[in-house]
Amino acid sequence: MSDTVRIGMLGCGTVGQGVLRILGETAGTVERATGHRLEVVRVLVRDLQASRPGVDPALLTADPEDILGDDTIDIIIEVMGGLDPTHEWLLRALGHGTPVVTANKQLLARHGPDLLAAAEEGGSDLRFEASVCAVIPVIKVLRESLLAAEIDSVTGIVNGTTNYILSEMRRSGMSYDDALAQAQDLGYAEADPADDVGGADAAAKMAILASIAFHTRVLIDDVPYVGIDELQSDDVDIAGELGFVMKLLGVARLVDGAVSVRVHPALVPGDHPLASVSGADNAVLLESTMVRQIMLVGPGAGGTETASAVVSDVLSILGSRPGSFLAGALADAGLPMAAEGSLESAFYLRLDVADQPGVLARISAVLGESGVSILTVLQRGEGESARLVMILHRSPEARVQEALGRLRDMRDVRAEPVLIAVVGSGEAPR
Ligand SMILES: NC(=O)c1ccc[n+]([C@@H]2O[C@H](COP(=O)([O-])OP(=O)(O)OC[C@H]3O[C@@H](n4cnc5c(N)ncnc54)[C@H](OP(=O)(O)O)[C@@H]3O)[C@@H](O)[C@H]2O)c1
C-alpha cells in the first residue's frame, strides 16, 4: 500500500458517521504511528439527500460500482448492515483482493466461513471486531493473542440491552416490562427489541466467537437460544436470595471434542467474575487450561464504540500482511457440534405446588428416580400453594429434562416449572 490508503465505505449511518469522525480526529496520530494517511474517498448510501451533519456531500454516491468497481480502493469498510446485497458485494471485494472491515454480525453468523474462504482465495483480509461486543477487543485476543491457547470455553454477556434489563430488575425489583420500557427510554433497546430480548442477537455473536475460539465452522443455526422475555421478576429475586445473579449468557464450550454453543438465562454465583458486570456493559470470560481465565469487559454497543472498533480493524490491516495466517483463524478444524442433551449442568428449579404434607418427598422421589439430586431447597407457603425452589446438583441435562416431564404430570405441581441453568459454580460445567 502506498502512503495514502484509499478507503471506500458502504453505508453512512450511525456507525459510518462515527468512523468518518474518528478518522478525521485521529488522522495525525495515525499517520505518525503507521506512516499512512487514511483517506475515505467514496461513501455509498441510498438516499443522497438525507441529513448527515459533518459529512462532505462530495464523497457520497448511490452507485455501488463507484466502490466495488474502483481498483484504486485499498480497503472497504462495510457499515450498511443486512444480508443482501451485502453478502454478494463483500464476496466480490474479498475475491478481488480488497481487504474488508465489517460490523455486520448477522452476515458473519450466517456467511462468515464463505467470506473468510473468499478472503483467503483472494489474498485479502476480513476483519470484524466491531461485530461482537463493539469496542471490547475479544476477536483480536482470540485470533492473535490466544491463537494457540486451546480455549475450552467462552462465556459471555454479549447483549447490553438484556444485561441492562436484568440489572434493573435485580437492583430495583421492577418487572421485566418496566425495565424494558426504561431501557427503550434510555436508548439501550431498539424500538423493536425482539432480537435482543429473544436471544437472537446474542446467538449471532456467540456463533462468531465460537468459530474463532474453536477454529470451527459455527453458524447461527447451530446455536439454540432462549431469551429473557419469559423471565419472571420472582425468579430474579429468589436467585438473589440464594446468592446468585441472573444473566443472559452465551456459553460456548468443548464437550468431549464436540462444540456446544447456546444462549439462555443462567444463574451465576455472586462471586463469579460475570456477576458484577451490570448495566449495558458486555463481558467475555475466556477459559483454557493454559491461560486459566481471562475476562474482557466494557461497553458492548453504541455508534462511537462500534466505529472505534472499525477504525482499529483498519489499522490492524495496515499492520499485517494480507493472506497471513490470521486470515485462516476460522479454518474448519472439523469439530462436530455437540448433541442436544449431552451437556451437564447444575440447575435452579422453581415449582409452584399444592401446600400439602408429603409434596416435597414426592418431588424428591421423582428427581431421585431420574438420577437428579438436590443441593438446596427453599420452601415458602403462599395460602394453599407453596413455592419450592431447588438448586440441583450438576447432572446430565437429558436426565433433568426427563424428570421435568414427569414433574409436569404430577397433580401436586400447579404451574409450568421454571428451570434455569446455573453456570460458573463448582456445581456447574466449566
Ligand atoms: N449502531 C450500533 O450501535 C451498532 C453496534 C454494533 C454493530 N452495528 C452494525 O453496524 C452496521 C451499521 O449499523 P448502523 O447503526 O450504522 O446502521 P444505519 O444507521 O441504519 O446505517 C446504514 C447505512 O447504510 C446505508 N445502506 C443500507 N442499505 C443500503 C443499500 N442497500 N445500498 C446502499 N446503502 C445502504 C444507509 O443509507 P441511507 O443513509 O441512505 O439510508 C445508511 O447510510 C450494521 O451491520 C449493524 O448491525 C451497529
Structure commentary:
The chain has helices at residues 14-34, 65-68, 86-95, 105-122, 138-145, 160-172, 176-185, 194-198, 200-214, 233-241, 303-319, 359-369, 397-408, and strands spanning 4-10, 37-44, 60-61, 75-78, 100-102, 126-127, 153-157, 244-255, 258-269, 281-288, 292-299, 344-354, 374-382, 385-396, 418-422. Strands 11-10-7-8-9-15-12-14-13 form a 9-stranded mixed beta sheet, sandwiched between helices. The protein has a 6-stranded parallel beta sheet with strand order 3-2-1-4-5-6, sandwiched between helices. Helix content is 36%, strand content 25%. With 430 residues, it is of the alpha/beta class. The protein has 3 domains: 4-127 and 307-328, 3-Layer(aba) Sandwich (Rossmann fold), CATH 3.40.50; 138-299, Dihydrodipicolinate Reductase, domain 2; 344-422, 2-Layer Sandwich (Alpha-Beta Plaits), CATH 3.30.70. The two termini are 45 Å apart. It has 13 helices and 15 strands. The longest helix has 21 residues, at 14-34. The chain binds NADP nicotinamide-adenine-dinucleotide phosphate. NADP nicotinamide-adenine-dinucleotide phosphate binds next to helix 1 and helix 11.
Question: Which helices and strands occur, and which strands form pairs?
Answer:
Layout lengths: L3 E7 L3 H21 L2 E8 L15 E2 L3 H4 L6 E4 L7 H10 L4 E3 L2 H18 L3 E2 L10 H8 L7 E5 L2 H13 L3 H10 L8 H5 L1 H15 L18 H9 L2 E12 L2 E12 L11 E8 L3 E8 L3 H17 L24 E11 L4 H11 L4 E9 L2 E12 H12 L9 E5 L8
Parallel strand pairs: 1-2, 1-4, 2-3, 4-5, 5-6, 9-15
Antiparallel strand pairs: 7-8, 7-10, 8-9, 10-11, 12-14, 12-15, 13-14
Helix pairs in contact: 1-11, 3-4, 4-9, 6-7, 12-13
The structure holds NADP nicotinamide-adenine-dinucleotide phosphate.
